């Protein structure tokens, strides 16, 4: 059976093409739930009008589905709560020049 840690590692391979940072460190992933062999990912975007939503759904689905034991992947978008830079990892903030 696939673990949450394995899924998160695959999600770290999903890179935002505009920022060059993975979606986990950007704070876009809100939850990963595994039910039997199905993985459900709850995520957000930096803004509701971000045109990369379908790109991320495809990338996440492809990468997570490559894990042994995963039969299906669903990706749900939410904007509640809205994304903010406080959700980013310290490394991502430093890379993008955010000042504390």
Description:
By secondary structure, the chain is α+β, with helices and mostly antiparallel strands. It has a single domain, classed as GMP Synthetase, Chain A, domain 3, CATH 3.30.300.130. The chain is built from 3 helices and 3 strands; from the N terminus they run αββαβα. It has helices at 4-11, 53-65, 90-96; strands at residues 29-35, 38-43, 72-77. A 3-stranded mixed beta sheet has the order 1-2-3, covered by helices on one side. Strand 1 and strand 2 form a beta hairpin. The longest helix has 13 residues, at 53-65. The termini are far apart. InterPro entries: Fe-S_Maturation_MIP18 (IPR052339), FSCA_dom_sf (IPR034904), MIP18-like (IPR002744). Residues 5-75 form the MIP18 family-like domain.
Question: How would you summarize the topology of this molecule?
Answer:
Layout: H1 4-11, E1 29-35, E2 38-43, H2 53-65, E3 72-77, H3 90-96
Parallel strand pairs: 2-3
Antiparallel strand pairs: 1-2
InterPro entries: Fe-S_Maturation_MIP18, FSCA_dom_sf, MIP18-like
Protein name: MIP18 family-like domain-containing protein
Domain MIP18 family-like: 5-75
Give the CATH class.
Answer: Alpha Beta
* Shape by Cα distribution: globular
What is the straight-line distance between the termini? 40 Å
Number of domains: 1
